[in-house]
Amino acid sequence: MREIEISLRSQYKKWYHLGLTSVARSTLADANSKRSADILKDVFYDFLSKCQALSPDHRFRFKNSLFIFDSTLIKPCLSMFPWAEYRKRKGAMKIHALLDHRGCLPSFLRVTKGNCSDIKVVKEKKYCFPRLLPDSIITVDRAYIDYNWFYSLTLNRVFFVTRAKKNTKYEVIGQQEVPKNKNVISDEIIRLTDKETKKDYPERLRLITYYDKEKNVVLVFLTNNFKLAASTIAEIYKNRWQIEVFFKWIKQNLKIKTFLGTSENAVMTRIWAAMIYYLLLSFIKFQTKLSYELQELTRIIRELLMENVSLLEILRITLHDYKRLKLKT
After folding, report:
1. For 252-265, how does the pLDDT look when each residue is reduced to its tens digit (9 = 90+)?
2. 245 assigned to some structural domain
3. Is 244 part of a structural domain of the chain?
4. DSSP state of 133
5. Any residues with CB less than 8 A from the CB of 250 and at least 6 apart, and which?
6. pLDDT tens sequence across 117-176
7. What pTM was estimated for this model as a whole?
8. What range defines the domain where residue 302 resides?
9. Residue 323: per-residue pLDDT
10. Is residue 248 part of a domain?
11. What is the DSSP letter of 84?
């Protein structure tokens, strides 16, 4: 907070276009402790709808909405963040995100204690996991295998794609045609045979065995979608890495592992502010339709943050135009 205060005060001649009249560390501290982080949460979801209206379609040929759901751990010091108890001597919080393939936007975000089970967030009403529209596809890893939840998705006409567990008990009740030269080993229609899983999911499922040439491994996928090609199902799951890239990017570039306060409200304020900034970058990228990466936009904004210039105009200036302007001046 001292750094923020000193940095802003050193730029006091440029405050006018930011609407600032004074900067005080105590004001920032009061906001962290007293101003509810839910204000920023509401701003995030309001702005999200504007970004979604501009976001490009995903690269797959099918028209279904495509989502990835996963979580990542942030490990603050337990002595400074006692409310984030994870283990006896370790603190942690978990960010759960539903990433929309259209524009790689986080369409749902939830922060819990580190010991919160991943599957609880999608099953328990208190976490407010959104109800996906019919014909949507959601990709999850094996940590989310819960046949009762899967069956609820099927009843709502939502498709899921995941990796099958090795100990899955089933019987083969049919076969689908295996395409040539697509690395698909088998494409089977199955029914669960274990007493408990059969009770939770009484319908048929699709089991696809696929050879991944790049990693030289055989992968087995489980889905309730019988229309898409087996190779497409495999490609959908392989694209799950995008959420790992998203988590890595926000940790490295949005500094959500370091906080300006130790209270739960201060931490949530920091996270929601970072997510709003991520949406702002995405909005600029979608609005300008330029090929800038988010990292490049971050660097440009950092340099121009205190300048009274139009960011969109700066982004549209090519290197050739910039050199020509320099020569004229």
Report:
1. 888 777 777 778 88
2. no
3. no
4. P
5. 256, 274, 275, 278
6. 899 999 999 999 999 999 999 999 999 999 999 999 999 999 999 999 999 999 999 998
7. 0.85
8. 292-329
9. 52
10. no
11. G
How many angstroms from the chain centroid is the CA of residue 223? 22
Inside any domain, residue 246: no
Tens-place pLDDT, residues 18-46: 778 888 888 888 888 888 889 999 999 99
Who wins on pLDDT, 92 or 323? 92
Q: How many domains is the chain partitioned into structurally?
A: 4
Q: What is the DSSP string of 178-244?
A: PPTTS-EEEEEEEEE-SHHHHHH--S-EEEEEEEETTTTEEEEEEES--SS-HHHHHHHHHTTHHHH
Judge whether 68 and 143 are in contact, CB under 8 Å: no
Question: Based on the domain organization, do 202 and 270 belong to the same domain?
Answer: no
Same domain, 66 and 46: yes
Quote the pLDDT of residue 309. Answer: 75
Q: Are residues 93 and 124 in the same domain?
A: yes
CB contact set of 168 (below 8 Å; sequence gap of 6+):
192, 197, 222
66 and 214 in one domain? no
Return the DSSP state at 19: T
Cβ-proximal residues to 312 (8 Å cutoff; 6+ apart), any chain: 284, 287, 288
The strand pair at 159-163 and 137-139 is best described as parallel
Q: In terms of domains, do 280 and 299 share one?
A: no
Element (H, E) at 110: strand 105-113
Same domain, yes or no, for 271 and 323? no
**What is the spatial distance between Cα 109 and Cα 97, in angstroms, rounded to a whole number?**
5
Alpha-carbon span 315 to 218, nearest angstrom = 45
Query: 41 and 124 share a domain?
Result: yes
Q: Are residues 234 and 276 in the same domain?
A: no
